[in-house]
């Protein structure tokens, strides 16, 4: 059995695959970003998502996660997975590699991630050759869900947003005031998830002119700080993964066009394409 995971800061998509019987079982859990969880959290999540019998049958795990770019961070995930799957061979990789494999397979290209957080990379068909500099939710993550939430909240509490938008926000979140906001940002756990939790409101107001400009400005910042910093070839298509890229694809395409950049595939989540990728690799390996 093969277990594949795509984990962001908000949620993790899992698929347990039985290659011999050609069966795939999809599950969901909380996000497992090593900057916000420890090895015990990872093990507990795995034990709550799968039965002991299922875990005992797993011989390979491919985990792609936000925050797993460094050895120390990926080790946290690895140790947690080992606690529940002692016999499995485990590969922990950054989520950008997962996005690249899902979007491009063995082909080369440029990909971007726009979910709770954001990132970008250049992929040569085997490995990441260049990656954007990500400062996380405090200093960066432009174009992401938490960046959109940050821009919205700042506009609401500084009263720069139009009055009708302020009123709609107050009706949707009557208990959210500045003291509560600051508590979530500086005292409570997972401030990045909190910022991104305002995404449904942004989606509901997406046709408001001010909100369209807010989203477009966030994408412009993303392109400037991630894509253009990597000095990509403007003749090459850019491919994207993530709920923000998917939900606001029309605005993203406009931002790309404005800068003379071409848009390729946009997928909401990579888990299905990652399953295809690893099934293909396993089939090739078995044939050899």
Give a written overview of the molecule.
The chain has 288 residues and is of the alpha/beta class. The protein has a domain at 2-101 and 270-287: Nucleotidyltransferase, domain 5 (2-Layer Sandwich), CATH 3.30.420.40. Helix content is 48%, strand content 21%. It contains 14 helices and 10 strands. The strands form 2 sheets. Strands 3-2-1-4-5 form a 5-stranded mixed sheet, sandwiched between helices. A hairpin with a 4-residue loop joins β7 (118-123) and β8 (128-131). The longest helix is centred in the last third of the chain and has 19 residues, at 209-227. It is globular, with a radius of gyration of 20 Å. The two termini are 19 Å apart. The model is unreliable at 284-288 (pLDDT under 50).
* Main sheet: strand order: 3-2-1-4-5
Question: What is the CATH architecture descriptor of the domain at 2-101 and 270-287?
Answer: 2-Layer Sandwich
CATH fold type of the domain at 2-101 and 270-287 = Nucleotidyltransferase, domain 5
Q: Could you name the CATH homologous superfamily of the domain at 2-101 and 270-287?
A: ATPase, nucleotide binding domain
Based on CA atoms alone, the radius of gyration comes out at 20 Å
**Main beta-sheet annotation:** 5 strands, mixed
Q: In percent terms, what proportion of residues is strand?
A: 15-25%
- The level 1 CATH classification of the domain at 2-101 and 270-287 is Alpha Beta
Give the N-terminus to C-terminus distance in angstroms. 19 Å
Q: Name the shape in a single word.
A: globular
Helix content: 40-55%
How many individual β-strands? 10
N-to-C order of helices and strands: EEEHHEHEHEEEHHHHHHHEHHEH
